[in-house]
Amino acid sequence: MPTAGTPREFISTAQAAKQLGLSLGAVQQMVESGKLVAWKTAGGHRRIRQDSVDALLAQAQPSRTRGPRNAGEETDRFRVMVVEDDELLRHVYREALERWALPLDVRIFEHGLDALMAVGRQPPDLLITDLRMNGVNGFEMIRRLRDNPATLDIAIVVVSSLSAEEIEAEGGLPPDVVAYGKPVPFRELHGYVQALISLVRRQRVMASDIRADN
What we know:
It comes from Parazoarcus communis SWub3 = DSM 12120. The chain has eight helices and eight strands, in the order E-H-H-E-E-H-E-H-E-H-E-H-E-H-E-H. By secondary structure, the chain is α/β, with parallel strands linked by helices.
């Protein structure tokens, strides 16, 4: 059991949640999965190592400070992140996106928490997510992305079996989020992704021209 140290060596779950900008439940899940190092007091309270929180914040730093992609980061491939806790649907997504024969770089995640941390390392152009998931659900993911000025440009598509009334009961979705019901409407999704690819390409060309002029 760790001995008492300076106040900054160990912090409470609430303090870690505030520093990371996540819910208490999300932080608890990170402890259970080993992403955060923690121990329990005799009274059953968690104490989390400050340096493990600092390490996660360092991983997420690129998304917090990210501006327009520079020439070294630009790519012709359109980055798509899919978050779906149903194993069969993850397989269906992967097969469908591969059949589209589009210039996609696809990453698929089962857990919202893993996806949220991956955004910090390499933000996608498009996030496709379910809403009802264990741990960090789709609502919380979207809230975190829209609360961060550095990730406002990520296009978001929700594919969920929740009704419009159920979504509203959870606080609703931002007006710029596209929402589809299940089963996944791959034909409509395909057209949407094609349009986004064209838009992103034009934006990258314009940004490149501006840099060249400067």
